[in-house]
Target: Lipoprotein-releasing ABC transporter permease subunit
Amino acid sequence: MQFPYELAVGWRYTRAGRATRRNGFISFISGVSMLGIALGVAALIIVLSVMNGFQKEVRDRMLSVVSHVEIFAPQGAPLPDVERTMREARSNPEVVGAAPFVSAQALLARGEDMKGALVRGIDPAREGEVTDLAATSGEVLKRLVPGEFKVVLGIELARSLGVSEGDVITLIAPSGQVTPAGVLPRMKQMTVAGTFDSGHYEYDSALVMMHYEDAQRIFRLEGPTGIRLKLKDLHEAPRVAHELANTLTDRLFIRDWTQQNKTWFAAVQLEKRMMFIILTLIVAVAAFNLVSTLVMSVQDKRADIAILRTLGASPSSIMGIFMVQGAMVGVIGTLAGLALGLAIAFNIDVIVPAIEQLLHAHFLPKDIYLISKMPSEPQSSDIVPIAVISLILSFVATIYPSWRASRVNPAEALRYE
Model:
């Protein structure tokens, strides 16, 4: 099979030109363009992979504590008929687990320390159906026996209160009891049964779990305030929530996991789009350096162009030769950037700790970024557009200089040779 001579000549200019070119500055500019494209592509892949990993890591850790869908009565009131609502929810083919819960806010006191907390009353026997926390802290949750008034604290909350397993803390309910001396807050001594670590700082620092029957007694409720559901596919949560709103008998509120942290997820998506645009400009700057490279290359090869024209080469063939030369710089730079970016993205869990140890710094404080390790998840939906955009920009940058080469007059070019 014989390749078109335009491809062969263009590849020869790209491959062998650096050693034989009279003007070494052209070779330098070409190398800078190639390096710039490679670094731009690598930076895009690394940044977007880290942002994907960060979003997935926070989402997974959040869903280890938060259920896919929650059904609850307005104003924190008990559900009218818990068992009927659970049966109706389970009738949806996407629902694989359901468990009742009680949700309320309270204060925890230990000596002079006092912390606000979100109290969640759970059924330890059913908790494994709706969250993954039971898989890691199942033994601790089994200690929540109705009537014993035991609690399981998030590890950061326990650390801030200075308590551990077996210690006694005071839970202060917001609704008080009326006495001749006035309204007094209701307080209950609770025993710490253990702690859990979800890896999500927001929940580890504020969530308290107890048996839902104990929560009903403390907050004077006649039953659970809601039902938590787990789905086959977490991405179907908005659709399933909409379907349940039309099929449940009672008028209840339904909330899926995307609504609980809607602002955070929207902010991450916006940041990802902006980073893509900003870093794409870096690739564009490097790609358009090819313009100056090819313009100087055309001046350097004017004699070659004239000889090819006198041998019968058409203007379109001359244009094709220089487009091949410029496009090859873009292809090589893009492939090098893909290799570098993917190598770093897939090994960032090793690279970042090494840099942190070398610099004696910590890049991700847990209390600010919710997670403490740098995650990474390269996705083809990001990598393919990056490569395509880089190649398109490189190709576009070659059009004008190649067109100028095709307009070179052979007689004018050979006059001074």
About this structure: The mean pLDDT is 81. Residues 188 and 339 are 60 Å apart (CA to CA). The first strand starts at residue 69 and ends at 72.
